[in-house]
Amino acid sequence: MKSFRIAAIAALAGAACAPAGGTDLVASPLAGSAWRIATIDGTPVVGRRGDDGEDTTPRFAFGWRSYGGNAGCNALGGLYAQVGDRLYTMPGPQTAMACGSPHGDQEAAASAIFAASPVVGRRGETFRLSGGGHAMELVRIGPAPGNVDPPTAWQGTALSGQSFAIHEVDGARTDGMRLWKTPPRLRFGSSEVTMALDCPRPAKGAFVQSSEHLHVAMLAPTCPTEARDRRLAEIRGADPRVVSGPNGELLLASAKGWAILWNERRDRPK
């Protein structure tokens, strides 16, 4: 065990110093722009008249780690990280205004798309987000407004010394299998990470955080029959991107999938 820990930390330290590469390090083509929703499920979207009498165009703006906008009614938004052709997302709270048809239907479809971490496709200047049984086409209308997050280095708190409750793995909530005395969690020490999910005994390994990436060398789950432990281990083992939100939320996204976590020192969804 000791020899594994020394070798793993040395290998990870080398990876952290290596030059960045790979398609997952390329900024999303949506980043830095505002996009009008042209269609949802092949049907042109309908705007609505706001309280000020002006028509509200259904649109979304993308920063480099967050997105926000509307599909004709309430404000929607959250964190995201594009890896390959997947736009992995962590939707946040939204406003709760009642919406009749067709605006409510548009919003429900858009919410389902983002919650499913959609596949991104492109045809000319039109981008298509597909997921959750729906598809949405976006057309660029200009640069994103100045209040979106900029293309600078990740600004979140370092993971060392933090403990996070595991809320979702690949879009499925972790509390659907058992009643937990304590929530499933990832704990980060100075160089060691511990995962406790479905396996009776936690799995442990070494980690290094470099900029917005997490490099992990972790032992296999202690009970390989538990599917969620295997999936989270695969996500961690693929050098996931790390996106941190202002309320203790954390998105891990890699070519193997995504996980949503909440800092145990902050409020999290019930």
Question: What does the model show?
Answer:
Helix content is 15%, strand content 40%. It is mainly beta. The protein has two domains: 2-22 and 152-263, Lipocalin, CATH 2.40.128.270; 28-143, Lipocalin. Strands 1, 2, 5, 6, 7, 8, 9, 10 and 11 form a nine-stranded antiparallel sheet that branches. Strands 12, 13, 14, 15, 16, 17, 18, 19 and 20 form a nine-stranded antiparallel sheet that branches. The longest helix is centred in the first third of the chain and has 16 residues, at 2-17.
Ordered list of secondary-structure elements with their pairings:
Layout (H helix, E strand, L loop, with lengths): L1 H16 L15 E8 L2 E2 L3 E2 L5 E2 L2 E4 L3 E5 L4 E9 L2 E6 L11 H13 L3 E5 L2 E6 L2 E10 L19 E7 L2 E2 L11 E4 L3 E5 L6 E8 L2 E6 L8 H11 L3 E4 L4 E6 L2 E7 L7
Antiparallel strand pairs: 1-2, 1-5, 1-11, 3-4, 5-6, 6-7, 7-8, 9-10, 10-11, 12-13, 12-14, 12-20, 14-15, 15-16, 16-17, 18-19, 19-20
Q: How many domain modules?
A: 2
Please indicate the percent range of residues in DSSP E strands (runs of 2 or more): 35-45%
Estimated helix fraction: 10-25%
Number of helices: 3
Question: Could you provide a short overview of the structure?
Answer:
The protein has 270 residues and is mainly beta. 15% of the residues lie in helices and 40% in strands. Strands 1, 2, 5, 6, 7, 8, 9, 10 and 11 form a nine-stranded antiparallel β-sheet that branches. Strands 12, 13, 14, 15, 16, 17, 18, 19 and 20 form a nine-stranded antiparallel β-sheet that branches. A two-stranded antiparallel sheet has the order 3-4.
